[in-house]
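INTERNAL TRANSFER SHEET
From: sequence group
To: structure group
Subject: CapA family protein

Please process the attached sequence and return the structure record in the designated field. Keep the field labels unchanged so the import script can parse them.
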Amino acid sequence: MNGAAPTPEGAPSGRSTGPAPSAAPGGASAPAGFTLIASGDVLPHDSIIRRAAQDAGGDGYDFTPMLSGVRPVVSAADLAICHMETVYGEPGGPYTGYPSFKSPPEIAAALRTTGYDSCSTASNHTLDDGAAGLRRTLDALDRAGVRHAGSARTAEEAARPTLLTAGGATVAQLAYTYDTNGRPLPEGQPWAVNLIDEAKVIADARAARAAGADVVVVSLHWGTEWQTEPDERQLTLARTLTASRTGTRPDIDLIIGTHAHVPQAYEKVNGTWVVYGMGDQIAGDMINHVGAYDPRGNQGTLGRFTFAPPARPGGRWEVTKAEFVPQWYDTGRGRVVNLGASDGGDPRHAGIRDVIRQVVLARGAGQDGLVMGR
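Return from structure group:
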C-alpha cells in the first residue's frame, strides 16, 4: 500500500509495485504494466457497526480486522478500487444501518490500511443523508488518502475525472449509479451524484482520455438485486459502452459492477472485460426480496486484471491476465475470508467457493481466459 498523503483532486495518485520500465526502441523507457484489483459493496449494517465497535475495544470503531483476510491481495496490487456504498455520519454518531445508512467515518482509514487507493461512491444510498452526508464521506476519504469517483461536493470536482497512477499508466476511474432511491439531487447541485446515462458515460470516458488517461475504468452501480444473472439493462449497456470507440481504440477499458448483493458473471464483451456484479464485500446477515435470509448476500469476488502497455504509442493497454478471487464475509466471526487462498480448516469454504465459481463463469469467461486467483 502506498502510504503517501492525499493527492489534490484531479492529480494522479496510486502506487507502482511492478517491474521497472524496460528500454524501448531508440533508448526510451517503455511504460511498465500494472495489476488492478476491484471489489464489491462495503455495506455496514447495524451488526457490522457493532462488530467494529467490539474490534475497537470500546474506543470508537475499527473496521481493519474485518478486512485483514484480503489485505495481502489488495495491498499487493498496483491499483486497488473498492465500492463505498454508504455515506458517513458525524464523528461520534449516531450511526444507522438499513434502510437509511449513516456509517462511522473510521471505515475510510480501514480501507486505506487494507490497501485501497480509490472507491466508487455513486450508489442508491449516496443521498441517504443529503448533501451533508455526501460531503462528510468525501471529506473523510480525503483525510484517509483514499480517492473517490461518482459523487462530488462542487461542480468543479464533478467535472474532473479521478486520475490515478499504476505502473507506467494513468488510470481514470469513473462511477455512476442507476438511482438514489428516489431521493432528489440536492437543490442547485445536479452534479452531486453521477446517474447512469450511456451518452454521458461515453462523453466522460473520452474526456478522461483527453485529460491523459491511458486506461479508463467505469464503475457501475446497476442490475437487479438478488439476481445472479445480469438483467437486460446490464447486457444492453455493457454492449453499448464496450462498442464505443474513438478511431480504433475503445473508449472504455474495464467495467466493474456492484449493487446486486450477489456475485454475478464476468464476461468479455467486444473485447473488453465486464464484471456484472462483484457481490458484497462487507454486509450483515442479508435478507432478500422475499424476506428470507440469503447467504449469497455475503459472497463476492475480487477482480484482478493485469494490464500490459501498448505495442506502439497511442495503442490500447491490453488485459493479459484476468482473475477472480472468491471471497466470503463470515458474519459469525465478522471477517472477510479469501476463499482462493485456502479452506482454512472450515468445511463450508469449498462449497461457497464452488457456488461463486459457477456464477462467475456462467457466461463463458473461462473460455476467454478468466481463472481463479489466490
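Handover comment: Confidence is low (pLDDT under 50) at residues 1-12, 16-23. The longest strand covers residues 318-330.
Transfer complete.
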